[in-house]
Design goal:
heterodimer, A: 16 helices, flat, B: mainly alpha, 2 strands, about 0% strand
């Protein structure tokens, strides 16, 4: 207990406020401070408890990933000995490095295509006035809202029968050069926040639309572009449905997300290797997040807020 | 010269030029397949022989005879209601908590957000391991506390709740959205409420809630649409928990255990790509389309900020 601060008659000091004021404030301020401290403790204990629940799965997965085969099956929580070579075994598994390459190809090219196609579209939707602008936005949002399963069958038939591209990731990558609704929507929301004075003064200076876009808007929209690039990269990295539709028949085209599940099936008893592989699939996402936290948070808040 | 702008025809051409990637994408990768889905829903088509017109037979089959349609629709709707409700409540609570944290806010935000980034397949595989009834750490910890844990993903009654837990673990995106909305509530309103002697609950009820309702609405609607397409986690959980070895080509019954994790999107996949019953698969995807569309319309109607900020 902090009995001194609770004392009803605080000892006056030379610099203290006028006696009348401090006599009123003393006990009330102390009570308020105690309330604040209790509140601080309550909030932070809840936060620590919740944070533990969120982090523990990672901890258990990691601990299992360095256990021996038999211990991973035992239900033990702490490894007897640390088998770091489990990670080596996973990386050396047939196909695992190919899955990495395929994931990088899909996510890398997919992101590049998405960003290049979303910028002009989002700009036009945010800053041009034309008839049908509202309809166009409604269509973009409808596309964004639609389950991919709704259109997958005819699309698969076209790619497989017309272009003979099943067994590859191209049917997933090529469409991204033609605009992804979610990225267009997100970037448009971001571009709305850029004042039109910048565009007008660029025009006064004699910039055409394309120059204005490239020289003025793109540099100003970097945070928004970073956000859609990150989201698209992780969408592709995490995608399971797409690779299952197009790449499943051909193990050489599997991505990490798709391969991981079959990895578990092939190593049906080896939870330690499976958990090591699981962490290897998660790792790039976590690493990129630490370097790009701001863009992530900005992207997520943009989706929900504003308006 | 810069004067192209005054010319309406050129201006229209310019707009068209900027929009062209999306116009092509929308027509080729959205409008066409949507029309084709409707077309195939009236066809008997096994993807080898030519499509054959059968009228409403696929529709009748799906609604009257398909044995798994009922369970799949029930599971999907169950997940839509329970998952979305719990996600919104939990996401909002975490958002409130994070705005109250004074010390180490960055650490807590990262801890709450990180699971959202975990690839769904990886997160699901991890959860099936964590919740493994006999050897999983969760039941091990529960046993230390004297509680006999349920069979989680291996029990039809617990499989969907386990999926809900997995989804609550990945609540990070909603938390950030709510956090931003809560930080936008004008300070002065809280101060005014305090002067009127409002307690914590009244402040939430009369100040916070009215100003975040549009975001809550947004979270509900996008949550419903996302859950309508719930696929990867349910499929992977069922496959891994069933413990059967699956190679390419081997057909497993989705929805282990007892179809409790079978969702409509999984049924679309299994009809279209395992049974090659294109017509039935297209009918199922149109059912999904109708529900998702209805929800989207509701969103537009309520104008929860999606089309706002026109200028």
């Amino acid at each position: 207990m902090t009995s001194t601060t609770l004392s009803p008659t605080p000892t006056p000091t030379p610099t203290a406020a006028p006696a009348g004021a401090s006599r009123q404030r003393g006990p009330a301020a102390a009570r308020a401070r105690r309330k604040r401290v209790l509140h601080w403790i309550a909030v932070h204990s809840v936060a620590i408890a919740v944070a533990l629940l969120f982090i523990l799965p990672f901890v258990f997965v990691f601990l299992t990933s360095v256990m021996s085969d038999s211990q991973a099956m035992s239900g033990d929580l702490w490894p007897d000995s640390w088998h770091w070579d489990n990670y080596k075994a996973v990386v050396e598994t047939d196909g695992f490095l190919d899955w990495w390459k395929n994931s990088l190809l899909y996510a890398g090219l997919g992101t590049l295509f998405t960003v290049c196609s979303a910028i002009p579209v989002a700009y036009a939707l945010a800053k041009f006035r034309f008839r049908g602008r509202r309809t166009a936005m409604i269509l973009v949002i409808s596309t964004m809202m639609l389950p991919p399963q709704v259109i997958v069958i005819p699309m698969y038939l076209v790619w497989a029968q017309q272009f003979h591209l099943s067994g590859t990731l191209w049917p997933l990558i090529i469409p991204m050069a033609f605009g992804d609704a979610y990225s267009i929507f997100l970037l448009r929301q971001f571009l709305l926040t850029i004042p039109k004075e910048y565009i007008e003064s660029a025009k006064v200076d004699g910039c055409g639309e394309l120059r204005t876009l490239l020289k003025i808007i793109v540099p100003m929209a970097k945070p928004g572009i970073a956000a859609i690039a990150l989201f698209q990269f992780f969408y592709c990295w995490n995608d399971y449905f797409g690779p299952q539709i197009y790449a499943a028949q051909n193990p050489a085209s599997w991505t990490l997300s798709y391969g991981l599940e079959s990895f578990k099936s092939a190593h049906s008893v080896n939870w330690n290797l499976t958990m090591a592989a699981t962490l290897l699939v998660m790792a790039p996402v976590c690493i990129v997040f630490f370097f790009a936290q701001k863009a992530f948070v900005e992207g997520v808040t943009l989706t929900g807020v504003k308006g | 010269m810069a004067l192209t702008l005054s010319n309406p025809a050129r201006r229209r051409l310019r707009t068209l030029g900027f929009l062209s990637p999306w116009l092509i994408g929308f027509s080729v990768f959205f409008a066409y397949p949507l029309i084709a889905t409707v077309y195939f829903s009236f066809m008997h088509y096994n993807q080898i022989q030519k499509p054959d017109f059968v009228g409403l037979r696929n529709w009748k089959y799906v609604f009257e005879q398909m044995p798994l349609f009922g369970p799949a629709l029930w599971n999907t709707l169950w997940l839509v209601v329970v998952m979305v409700a719990l996600r919104v409540v939990f996401g909002l609570s975490l958002g409130l908590l994070i705005t109250k944290i004074k010390t180490g806010a960055g650490f807590f935000r990262t801890a709450f957000y990180l699971p959202y980034l975990a690839p769904p397949v990886a997160a699901t595989v991890a959860f099936v391991f964590l919740l493994n009834p006999s050897t999983g750490p969760v039941n091990e910890v529960l046993a230390h506390l004297g509680i006999t844990g349920p069979n989680w993903f291996n029990d039809a009654a617990w499989a969907k709740p386990s999926l809900v837990m997995l989804s609550l673990w990945g609540i990070g995106d909603l938390m950030v959205i709510f956090m931003a909305a809560l930080l936008d509530v004008p300070r002065e309103q809280y101060e005014a409420a305090e002067l009127d002697g409002a307690g914590a609950w009244s402040k939430f009820r009369y100040v916070t809630w009215p100003s975040i309702t549009p975001i809550v609405m947004f979270a509900v609607v996008t949550g419903v649409v996302q859950t309508m397409q719930y696929y990867t986690q349910a499929l992977v959980a069922g496959k891994i928990a069933s413990g059967v070895s699956i190679g390419p080509g081997s057909v497993i019954q989705p929805g282990y255990p007892d179809h409790s994790t079978l969702t409509v999107p999984q049924l679309v996949y299994s009809m279209g790509f395992q049974n090659f019953n294109t017509g039935a698969a297209c009918v199922l995807s149109l059912v999904l389309f109708a529900i998702a569309m209805a929800v989207t319309m509701l969103l537009m109607r309520k104008r929860s900020g999606l089309l706002a900020a026109e200028d």
